[in-house]
Amino acid sequence: MINPMVLSSAMDALVPLSRFNKGEAGKIFDEVRKSGFKIVVKNNVPAGVVLAPEYYKAMVEHIDEMHLYSLVAERLANDTGITYTNEQVMAELGITQDEIDAMDDVELEYELED
């Protein structure tokens, strides 16, 4: 059975695009601040979502955390149990701590793996 509270909440989240065209944007954004989001519909079909900034920020942070979690899970699944000390890695790469200490500040750029 459909929970009436969920259905009511979903219906309250819908906002017709025509309300924006009628100059009600300010009122709609006030509603977004209170509810967190609105689903904009055009011809009774969802056309977009308006999110409060804190909802958007929380969503992006959650996505980032889930990405990191998936990387951790993948690395744990492929863990061989072999570990290396910092000194072993530096020796393998042929670098010394003095060389690292002598380096100027360097900005590192990275890309998240897909």
Tell me what the structure shows.
The protein has 114 residues and is α+β, with helices and mostly antiparallel strands. 57% of the residues lie in helices and 14% in strands. It is built from six helices and three strands. The protein has helices at residues 4-13, 17-21, 25-35, 53-77, 86-93, 97-102, and strands spanning 14-16, 37-42, 45-51. It has a three-stranded mixed β-sheet with strand order 1-2-3. Strand 2 and strand 3 (45-51) form a beta hairpin. The longest helix has 25 residues, at 53-77. The chain is elongated and about 70 Å long. The two termini are 39 Å apart. The model has no long low-confidence stretch (mean pLDDT 86).
Entry summary:
The chain has 114 residues and is α+β, with helices and mostly antiparallel strands. It is built from 6 helices and 3 strands.
Q: How many strands appear in the DSSP assignment?
A: 3
Shape, per Cα inertia axes? elongated
Rg, rounded, reads 25 Å
Mean pLDDT score: 86
SSE-based structural type: alpha+beta
- Biggest β-sheet strands, sense, barrel: 3 strands, mixed
Strand content: 5-15%
Contiguous uncertain segments of 5+ residues: none
Written as H for each helix and E for each strand, in order along the chain, the element string is HEHHEEHHH
Distance between the termini: 39 Å
Tally of individual helices: 6
Strand order of the largest sheet: 1-2-3
Please give the share of residues in helix.
55-70%
